[in-house]
């Protein structure tokens, strides 16, 4: 890859290295320079600029990141679309993140252009939580580096995967000493049930007996069959020959290990009976705060119960006790700051189709399905968390035509007031947990789900990308993604222009997302265009619309 000053005569196709602002010119870093761009720069008196130019043995940042992320990702891992050389990976299930650290390290050591950052091995994760990010240091990676990374990633099981928690059945036995109140034991049951249910398990049994070896052994032998047996002693285990380990052995079990280098949680007992794990709980297990018992419980639920040696290796990072510089270290920690954005797709399908005469274009049949179904299906196939369809004109007919699709319908009785009224009705129905909305138009049948995914991948309000709009050949198209912070302004709009006017008012928060897809410019708003589209769809040639057929509204 060449990087440095380039004369305009040699800069077509090069990538701008630094943002450029000069009068009306505002080109952002990373822009691939077209002949039109160079003409504008030349007219402004610019003779050369700093840019990167890829060779035949370079792979562009987005393509390189996508290939490496796909090779690295294993089960229950979602790979997001690439943007600015970054691909984020998210959990698809609740469980434990498993890594092959040596192979992740090996990929990071290939070339300085290739980087992978992950959460720690065995990190408990929630659905939608970010696990890792693959980042190509701008603006490309050598092809041989990408190929080496792929070989390392595929040399064995994927080096990054989520092991979902299994539906674990758990039995609990508590011992008691004279004078211990039932309320204390009841609290232990409640805390244990909450712990087990948090990982998708079920506490199927709890019983109590005296803190006596014989009585406890009888309880163990008589406990119902469960995936895991927990024993909470009235007194902490102090030795391998104490009441709990002795009772386990008396009932036919085997003590595998006592103690662990995790604090709190030192006095955990690891045992086994009839091929099922048995845990003697440390006293801290009566508290809901994170302790060593949680680490062992999570691994058992994920189907990888720790061995004696693995428990003894938990000391690095095992200091969980609260200290002045880290109060309540993990209590209530939420992955919200590192989760996939929740984006609602809003399909506007309420218009009267005034230029179509008596025909409602949205209901026009194209290859056996209504035209509007194409926009809805693209939204459903994307990474949007949910899809809302706003109806208006002939709303019941539109809803019937889409009745077999998992969407939420919102009717706009004021549809005659224009696009803004449908936008307002749709925004009011967006779930409170959604971070943003991508506004799709029902009469734009050639917008692909991949375009929506590119917008979601680009979206990052913290980095100034709060409005994301697709572009092709220098033209802005649809759909448009809007951060929730704009909802109030969008709801205050009137008329038929949608939210287009807001884009200019918030240029500092706008991100243009280049896509090689002229479908973002194509809407069907006349009988002639509908006939041409229907004919093209019938012949299977709808993938390359005429870029001159430009949509006129921005959601």
TrEMBL record:
Keyword Transferase (UniProt): yes
Keywords from UniProt, A to Z, are: Kinase, Magnesium, Transferase
Q: Where is this region: Disordered?
A: 536-555
- Which segments cross the bilayer? none
- GO MF entry, a single one: kinase activity
Instruction: List residues of the MoaB/Mog domain.
Output: 171-302
Pfam name, any one: NTP_transf_3
CDD domains linked: GT_2_like_f (cd04182), MoeA_like (cd03522)
Q: Known SUPFAM superfamilies for this protein?
A: Molybdenum cofactor biosynthesis proteins (SSF53218), Nucleotide-diphospho-sugar transferases (SSF53448)
Keyword Nucleus in record: no
Give the SMART domains listed for this entry: MoCF_biosynth (SM00852)
**Domain of life here?**
Bacteria
PANTHER family reported for this sequence: MOLYBDENUM COFACTOR CYTIDYLYLTRANSFERASE (PTHR43777)
- Supply the name of the protein: 4-diphosphocytidyl-2C-methyl-D-erythritol kinase
Origin species: Azospirillum palustre
